[in-house]
Amino acid sequence: MTNLLYVFEGMTSFPTLIAAVVGVLWGMCGGALPGISTAIAMSLVLPFTYGMDPSSALVLLGSIYIGSEYGGSIPAILIRTPASGSSAAAVLDGYAMQKQGRGGEALGLSLVGGTIGGLIGLLMLTLMTQQLSKLALFFTPPAYFALGVLGLSVVAAVSPGQIVKGLIAAILGLMLATVGSDPVSGVTRFTFGYPELLGGIPVIIVMMGIFAISELLIQARERHWPDEVAKGKTKLVLPSLKKLWELRVPQFIAVILGLIEGLTPGGGGSIASFMSYNEAKRWSKNPEKFGKGSEEGVIAPETANNVVALTALIPTLSFGIPGTSNAALLLAALLIHGLHPGPLLFSAHPEVVYRMFGGLFVANIGMFVFGILLLSPLIWLVNRPKAYLRAGIFVLIFSGVYSINLSEFDLYMVLAVGVLGFLLRALSFPYLPFILAVVLGYMIEANYRRSLLITDGDHIVFLQSPLAVGLLSLAALFVLAPLYRQFRNRKSVPSATNDIA
Amino acid sequence: MKRSVVTGAVLLGIAVLYWYLADGIPKSPMSGSVGADGLPKLLAICLGVLSLILIAQSVLSPASEPAAAAADVEDTGDAEFTGEGFFLALKMLTIAVVYVLILPVLGYAASAGLLLLAIAMFFGRPFGFQVLAFASVGAVMAHLVFVTLLGVRMPTGFWPSLGWF
To answer: How many domains does one find in chain B?
Structure first.
C-alpha cells in the first residue's frame, strides 16, 4: 500500500512531473536530431541531476530514454536516417509509407505503438522488481561482490566474436576505477599528486567522456552531410482502435520479444526491434507487404523499442546489470546519488524506486501528448544544420562538466576519457564492457576485500553464502554460454566450407 | 594485422607501466590480506596476458583479420577508421584543448563564442555573417542559461580587471 502511495507521489509531485516532462521533451528532440544517440542525450543532462533528488534524477533520465525512442523514429521515417540503432528497423516500412504519402500514418503507428509498449513495459517492470525486494536481507559483502561479478560477466555477451577485446576493455575500465583512495585502507593510488583524483574519476566524467566527447570525435570525419530535408507538412494520423485491434499480433510479438531482450544482458532496442520485425513478418497474413509500406512492419519494431526501454531497467535496478549503454547511464545516476543497485534498493529506498515508476508512467503519457502536439517543431529540428548542432553540444558538455565542481581539471579529465573512448571505438573495441567495469569496479573490489576481512583472507567466505554461490554460478554461465556458442559457430564454419567444396 | 599488433604492443606497455606504478603503492596494516596493490597487480597481469593473446591472434591468423574487422565494425556500429579519421579527430581535439586553455583568460562567454565559431567552421560552415551571428547568439544564450539562470560561477577572464564587468 505504501509503495502505491509512492507511485502516486511520483505521478503528482511537482519535481518528478517536471523531470518527466523535460525528460520526454529533451529525449524527443535528442532522438529527432540525427547523430545524437539516446546515450548522448542522457549523458548531456547528467551534470544537472546532481542537485536533484534521486527519484527526479532517475525519472529525468528514464523519460529521455522513453522520449528518444519516438523522436528517433521521425528522421528514420521521414528522411531514412535512423538516429539510433533501435529506430533503424522503422526505416524499412516507415520510409516506404512516407514515399507513398503515408508518412503521417507511419508516425502515428510509431507513437501509439511506442506508448502501448512503454506502458506494458512499465507494468512488467513494476510487477517483476517488487518480488526481488524479498531477497534484500540475504545481501552481505560476499553476495554484493558476487552481484558485481555477475554484472561484469555480461562482458562476454556484449562482445560477440571479440571476447579478447571485450575483456581488455573491461580491464581498462577496472584500472580506471582503481584511481583514488583505496576502499579499505584509504591509501591513495594512481593520483600522481593531484588532489582532484583522491575521490577517483567521477562516474559522471567517465559517462560524458565516453558517450559525448568520443562520439563527437568519431563524427569529426563526417564533415559533409547529405542534405536530405524532411517535409514540414507531414500531418500525424493516429490509428483507430479498429486498426490497433487488427495489428494486435505484431504488437503481442513485440511485447514478448521486448521483454526477453530487456531482461537479456547485451540485448537492447536494436535487436528487439529487428527480431520483432522478422517475427511479425513470419506470422503475418500479408508477409509480401513487408518492406513496401506494411503497417505491421512499423508498429512491431516501434512497440518493441519502448518495451525494452522499460524492461531493461529490471536487471539494472535488481542486480546492477545494465545490459545496454542507456541502462548503464541510469545505473551511473544511481551511484551518483549514493544508491547501490540490488534488492536492498527496494527495501532501503522504496520511495526512490516507486516514485520513479510513477514518473515514468507520466513520461509515457507525456510522450503520447507531446508526440501529437510537437510534430512540426520536431521536423524543423530534423532539418537543422549539423555543424551548428555539434558546436552547441560541445558548449553544453563543457559547461555541464565545469558546473559540477567549478574545476578546469574536470574539463581535462573529460577530454582524456573522451580520447580513450574514441580510441576504443576507432580500434573496434566494444566500449560497453569498459563502462560496466568503471561503474561496478569499486563495488567489486570493496566487497571482495571486506569479505576477506571477515575470514582473515580465506576465500571460503564466498562459498558460505548460498546467494553468493548462486550469483557466481550465474556469472559463470553468462561467461561460458557465449564462449560455447562462439566455439560451436567456429566449428560449423569449416564444416560448412567443406560441404561447399 | 599491423594495427592489432601495434595496439597489442601498446597495451602490453600499459600493463608493464601499471604494474610498476602499482608496486609503488604504499603498504598499510589496514589494507587486509589482499592489500591496496592486490587488484591493480592482478589487472596488470591480466592485461599483459590478453595483450599477448591479441598479438598472437593477429600474427597467427592474418587472413581472417579483414573479416574480423568487418564483424567488429558491425558490433561497435562505427565504420572502420582511416588515418584521415584520426587526423580530423586530432584537429577537433586541438580545438577543444585550446578552448580549455583560453577559458580562464578570456572568460566563459567569449570562449564559448569562439568554440561555437571554431566547431561550426570545422564542420564546413563558411566564415561570414551567419556563422558569426550563430556564435554570438550561442555565447549569449550559454551565459544566460548557465550564469544567470543556473547561477554557475563560470570563469570571468581578464575582463573584470579592465573594469568592464
So the answer is: 2
